[in-house]
Amino acid sequence: MRKAILVAELLLISLFSASCHLPRRIEPVKKPPQYDRPLLPGQFALRKITNPADIPDFTFACYNLTNLRSAIAKSLNYLKKPSSKQFYPCGEITHEKAVQSLQAFDELFESKLFGDKLKEAILQKFDVYISVGCDDRGTVLFTGYYTPIFDGSLTRTEKFRYPLYKQPADLVKGPKGEILGRRSRDGVEPYPSRKVLEISDSLTGTELVWLGDPFEVYIAHVQGSAKIRLPNGKLMGVGYAASNGHEYKSLSKAMVEQGKIGGRQMSLTAMINYFKQHPDQVASYTQVNPRFVFFMEEKGEPRGSLNEEVTPYRSIATDKTIFPPACPTFISTRLPYEKDGAVSERPYTGFALDQDTGGAIRAPGRCDIYMGQDDKAGSLAGRTYQQGRLYYLFLK
């Protein structure tokens, strides 16, 4: 699926433009954490916790068990597929260990344990691992992503004239789905950038659906999925099929640097409003990001990179080159929530399944939380930017 790059980086920009006053004395410049710092050669992304004092408190993380158990079932369904074995072993975690851990995890909640009894049962049955994070001390940046809903049409009209494209026939993938490039007479060459694709007609004939706003197209690219409300009222799901293989670059950073939107005011809503007032500027800014996403129609709910449906607050996206896919996790951070129309923030702990990945979700210091569909989910996802800890549970 694609994951929520845009909403995360908007908040990052605001952190770096927070002050309008100079300090009275010069303080040493503190570098921001390098959340995308890669692992050292041979290093495993997870570290087994051996000190009981470092194990998180699972006591209050067991609400909505139906929601959780259905997400566990989706992970188990993925691991039944022979193709899932190619991602194992992951470090010291084997495919068999992942399956057994999920089965035991599901049995744990089938027993309807709560509070201290739940915590005791987890400690008896599971080893707890922590992501080494961006600093080898467990620091992980949590961001959010969601599924937007846009109006659109299966045919081009005067109103709907901005397409989402299907995967082109000349795009070449590797055995694990990695993008290798474009097939040519001389073999495989890098796939063209967003700008080249948008100003050429090379994708003509591969249109999947048409939207009414070019910036909505870009949002769909960044989120990796969307629901399209067709003229007859039917909702059509579209999901990530492939990309052109280019790395993501920040659109909103460029807008702040050029003074289009102030750092404190930068948000997805601010960008949407700006481009509604300046539609002629959309392409010049979106083309800053060379990454381009191709889509396919999706039946049912949005799906993650495991080709299983993702569940709000129960599905997370991580770097699948270093973390074991589908496995049970535990999140400890702070998340925004809405009550009576007001949005505030509070501590959050909860169980989740590692079921997705994302274009900007790289290294052990990043994790994306799926927050659902519609504008409310988008508003909460756009406000999610907090450090925390990410844990994995494996059967002893």
Q: State the shape.
A: globular
Give me the Rg, rounded: 22 Å
Oligomerization: single chain
CATH superfamily of the largest domain, please? RlpA-like domain
* Strand-pairing-aware structural class: alpha+beta
**What's the number of helices?**
10
Identify the strand order in the major beta sheet: 3-16-13-15-14-17
Number of domains: 2
The name CATH uses for the topology of the largest domain is Barwin-like endoglucanases
Number of strands: 17
Give an overview of the whole structure.
This protein has 10 helices and 17 strands. With 396 residues, it is α+β, with helices and mostly antiparallel strands. The protein folds into 2 domains: 45-144 and 307-395, Barwin-like endoglucanases (Beta Barrel); 146-298, Barwin-like endoglucanases (Ribosomal Protein L25, Chain P), CATH 2.40.240.50. Strands 3-16-13-15-14-17 form a 6-stranded mixed β-barrel, surrounded by 4 helices. A hairpin with a 5-residue loop joins β10 (225-229) and β11.
